[in-house]
Specification:
303 residues; mainly alpha; 14 helices; globular
Length: 303
C-alpha cells in the first residue's frame, strides 16, 4: 500500500472517530445525561440502606443498568413527543430534533433499546421488579403528555422519578416498606418543586399554547410558593428517613442542613420579577443537592 493511501485511510479513520464522538455528544445532550444524578442519589441511597451496605456485585450492576436504561429512554422519548412543542418555543427551538440534527426515527430506536435493557435488567433482578416494570414504562412514556391536560404534570414527573428509589429497594429486598415509600415521596416533591421553578420561565408560552403547568394555572409567584412548600416537605421526609433508618446519624443530618441551605440559595435566586437564573436555581443547585444527599448519606451508612 502506498504512503498516500495510508495517509488517506488514516485521515478517514480519524474523521470517522470524530464523527462518532460528536454523535455521542449530541445524544448525551439530547437525553440530558448530566441530569442522571437527580434520582440516582435517591436510588443508590435506597439500595445501600436496603442492603445494609452494598448488595452483591451482580445485583448492583443490574440496578445501575436498569436505572440508566429507564432514565435515558424516558428522556429520549420525551424529546420525540415534545418535538413540535419544542420547535414553537424559542427557549427549546435549538434542540436537536427541531433543528433536524437528529432524526425522530433514531431517537425512537434509542428509546426502544434503552427500555429493552431496562426490562432485561428487571428480569435479572427479581420477579417483582419484572412484574412492576410495565408500570414504570407507562409512567416513563406518558409523563411527556401530561402538560397537555393537567397542571399536575410536575408531580407526575416526580412520581416517575420516584420509581428509582422504590425500585432499588425492591431489587434488594423484594418487598416494600416504610423507608422506600417515604424516600419516594421525598424524591417526588423534590423533583416537582424544581420542575415548577424551571417551568416558570415558560409561563407566557404555556398560556399562549394551551399547555398546563402550576405556574400557568396559579401564576409564577404562587407557583414559587408551592415549589418552596414541596421542598420543605422534602426536607421533613428526609429527616424522617434519618429517624427511622438506624444506619443514618450525625453525618446524614449535617448533609440535610447543607441541603436546607442550598434550598435557601435556590429561592433567593428567583422571583416573579427576575427569572434569569431559573436554570441555575432549578438544575445546577439541585444537582449539588443530589450530590450532597448521596455523599453524606453514604458516608453515614458506611462509617
Amino acid at each position: 500500500m502506498s504512503t498516500e493511501l495510508i495517509k488517506t485511510a488514516y485521515s478517514e479513520t480519524i474523521k470517522g472517530i470524530y464523527k462518532i464522538i460528536n454523535k455521542l455528544k449530541e445524544y448525551g445532550k439530547l437525553v440530558m445525561f448530566s441530569h442522571t444524578i437527580f434520582s440516582f442519589s435517591f436510588a443508590l441511597l435506597s439500595m445501600v440502606i436496603a442492603a445494609n451496605g452494598l448488595p452483591r456485585t451482580t445485583k448492583l450492576i443490574w440496578i445501575v443498568i436498569c436505572f440508566l436504561g429507564a432514565r435515558t429512554g424516558a428522556n429520549a422519548i420525551n424529546r420525540v413527543i415534545d418535538a413540535e412543542i419544542d420547535a414553537r418555543n424559542p427557549r427549546t427551538a435549538h434542540r436537536q430534533i427541531p433543528k433536524g440534527e437528529i432524526k425522530k426515527s433514531e431517537v425512537i430506536l434509542l428509546t426502544a433499546v434503552c427500555f429493552l435493557i431496562m426490562l432485561f435488567g428487571a428480569y435479572k433482578l427479581n420477579w417483582i421488579c419484572l412484574a412492576l416494570s410495565p408500570v414504570a414504562l407507562f409512567l416513563l412514556i406518558t409523563y411527556s403528555y401530561t402538560k397537555r391536560f393537567t397542571s399536575l404534570c410536575h408531580l407526575y414527573l416526580g412520581v416517575t422519578c420516584a420509581c428509582a428509589p422504590v425500585g432499588a429497594w425492591l431489587a434488594v429486598t423484594g418487598k416494600l416498606s416504610l423507608v422506600p415509600l417515604v424516600m419516594g415521596i421525598a424524591n417526588t416533591l423534590w423533583v416537582a418543586g424544581f420542575d415548577i421553578i424551571y417551568g416558570s420561565q415558560d409561563y407566557e408560552f404555556d398560556k399562549a399554547n394551551g399547555l398546563h403547568s402550576i405556574p400557568e394555572r396559579f401564576g409564577v409567584q404562587n407557583a414559587l410558593r408551592i415549589a418552596m412548600s414541596f421542598h420543605i416537605i422534602t426536607l421533613l421526609c428526609l429527616l424522617l428517613i434519618g429517624i427511622i433508618v438506624p444506619q443514618l446519624g450525625v453525618i446524614y443530618y449535617i448533609g440535610l442542613v447543607v441541603i436546607a441551605g442550598l434550598f435557601v440559595v435556590e429561592y433567593s435566586m428567583v422571583s416573579p420579577e427576575n427569572l434569569t437564573n431559573v436554570n441555575i436555581a432549578s438544575y445546577s443547585v439541585n444537582q449539588i443537592v443530589s450530590i450532597v444527599l448521596l455523599v453524606f448519606g453514604l458516608l453515614d451508612a458506611f462509617i
